[in-house]
């Protein structure tokens, strides 16, 4: 039997899902599960939450309410939620069984711990319980779907990883990572569903450990740890370089566009001038991954398709204006102030 999230006291415990809205089932009510529930509900979806731990089920409504309250009181500036926190919360139900969470769902989002055998067991249950049209997605951070789903599962072709930023309602990227057996139709439907939910799906074309998000984060962390180990810099100074140096630019544009705009002539000019230095830095860590002419040409072609060189000056000026806005915001809201 479904138990409405009564602690939220929204509309007398009844849900307020928009007629015809999508439905999401969430299995695993840790921090990511609650965050996904908030994002889906914010997009107007009906959401059912399940966790085998009764204590986690009991705690979820209050956690959801607290996060919504934080979103509701941010300011000044544009609001982060377009409706009342109570109205959004009323779209979320805590249910007592996995079957209830998966029933009638368009998308079932598994958010269990990073253990292959546990996920294997859950996906077998979800596949039996979810309607045939539902996408079955894991929020796994490192494990590819083929590690816990195999082709003996009847619904294997609709299974994939959908790894979010944390929390997804503030970091909207979600990595769509199909297994070799995931159908193209399921990939397309997953992209459409997460887009409808207000997220930014990114297609990871191959199963690799850590996908894109954690491989990029891991590269920076490995070097950061090495710099501390080698006595080059303190933990605080490294955090300062990232927070005050790399992060402001990367919050506006990505690493490829950053170096494309940093060097007149674009990314090909940057690779010609700086490639040998980056190759040397990699070699110092035992890594030999030079930027070959063919690889640079591939990246340059993508950048020039996005930004012809005759628009380079205008884009640099745009970047600087975005950084000015960010600097103004950061000046008005010190990082240690609630």
From TrEMBL:
The keyword Aminoacyl-tRNA synthetase does not apply. Keywords: Oxidoreductase. Its EC number is 1.1.1.35. It holds the Pfam family 3HCDH. Residues 24-206 form the 3-hydroxyacyl-CoA dehydrogenase NAD binding domain. Residues 210-300 form the 3-hydroxyacyl-CoA dehydrogenase C-terminal domain. One of its GO terms (molecular function) is NAD+ binding. The keyword Oxidoreductase applies. InterPro entries: 3-OHacyl-CoA_DH_CS, 3-OHacyl-CoA_DH_NAD-bd, 3HC_DH_C, 6-PGluconate_DH-like_C_sf, 6PGD_dom2, D-isomer_DH_CS1, NAD(P)-bd_dom_sf. GO terms for biological process: fatty acid metabolic process. It is an enzyme of class 1 (oxidoreductase). Belongs to the 3-hydroxyacyl-CoA dehydrogenase family. This is 3-hydroxyacyl-CoA dehydrogenase. It comes from Paraburkholderia sacchari.
